[in-house]
Every structure is written in C-alpha cells, then in structure tokens.
Amino acid sequence: KVIFIPHDSLFLVPFVALQDQDCKYLIENLTILTAPAIQVLDLTDQQRQKVRGKDILVMGNPIMPKVGDPPVQLDPLKGAEKETLAIAKFFQDQLFKTEAITGKDATKAAFKQKLSSARIIHLATHGLLADTDKSIPTAIALAPTENDDGLLTPGEIVDLSINAELVVLSACHTGRGAITGDGVVGLSRAFITAGAPSVIVSL
Q1: What is the DSSP string of 47-76?
Q2: What are the residue ranges of helices labelled H in 2-153?
Q3: What is the pLDDT of residues 90-113, one digit of tens each?
C-alpha cells in the first residue's frame, strides 16, 4: 500500500496511472491511495470501523437534469446504464442485496432512502464541475422530480449520514475541485466528510 499526500497542483496527478521502469502501471502491483492530510487518514480509519451497511447501492444513467443558462438537458449515458446493470448483477451473484436503479427512479430521494443500509455505493452518471462553467454547479447528476432539480451538490452531501465503506463516483471530474491548503475541496471531500472512508473518483 502506498499513500500519497500531495501538495497544491500535485492533487491533479493521476498517481495510479503512473508507470514503473518496466512500463507497468503502479496500480497493477500496489494499492495506491491519496489523502489531503495525515489527519484525514486517521479520520477515515475511524470511519471504516463504524461501517454498518450491508447492501449495495448502484445507480446509473438517470433521466438527466437540465443545467446551465439557458438550461440544457444533459446527454443520457447508455454505457453507464450497462455498467450499472453489470455491477448489480455481479453483486446479486455474490448474494448481496442489490438492484440497479436507473432512469426516472434514480432520484435524490431514492438515493437517500437506500443510503443508511448501503455498504458500497456506486453512482454512474454525469459529474459536474463548477470551474468549467460558472452557470453549472459542482454536482452529481440524478433524475429530477417536480420538487427537485436532480443535482446532488457537495453542500447536500456533507449533510448526509453515510455508513458505507466505499463510494464509487463513476463520472467525469469527480476527483477535481478547488485546490486549497487542505487539499481538493469538492465531491470527494464531501463524501468523506459525510462518513465515507474511501472514495474512488476520476480526474
């Protein structure tokens, strides 16, 4: 296991994709982790010991929300739906309680309802980053409803109580965010603050 605690722009380095002298990716032979600070490692270790969930929560390719000014509906992700179905089937074959939640059912309300019992959370959808377009918030795209825009923002995530040992954000830019003296502040930090000891994200 190798843990990187990067500084400043080094948070944008995809350490798992670096290669050794034999042209092997580091992730092939090592468990690679990054953390914003040594204190966060201690915090996530404590959180891992409190994991209570037993089910697998898998959501993907929701009916997409509209974003921007003027509002434009995000493109559907057929590959994300296949991913969601495949992962749900894998865990069902391992006798875990799980179902693939897609389309109009992949709402924030459904996500929050399943949250307390989830041991692993996998979200395959659009990841939005505010610094690419100021009219678009940093958020995970879920299905909108009459009462909700479908955008799960960091501010909402930190108020959740997550009992899972792992959150996978299978979307673009989920590892990005504002780089501060305390590391990257964005979606990944929000899930850690909410109780997730490990988060898999994308640069």
Answers
A1: HHTT----EEEEEEEESPPEETTTTEEPPP
A2: 26-29, 38-48, 78-93, 108-115
A3: 999 998 989 999 999 999 999 999
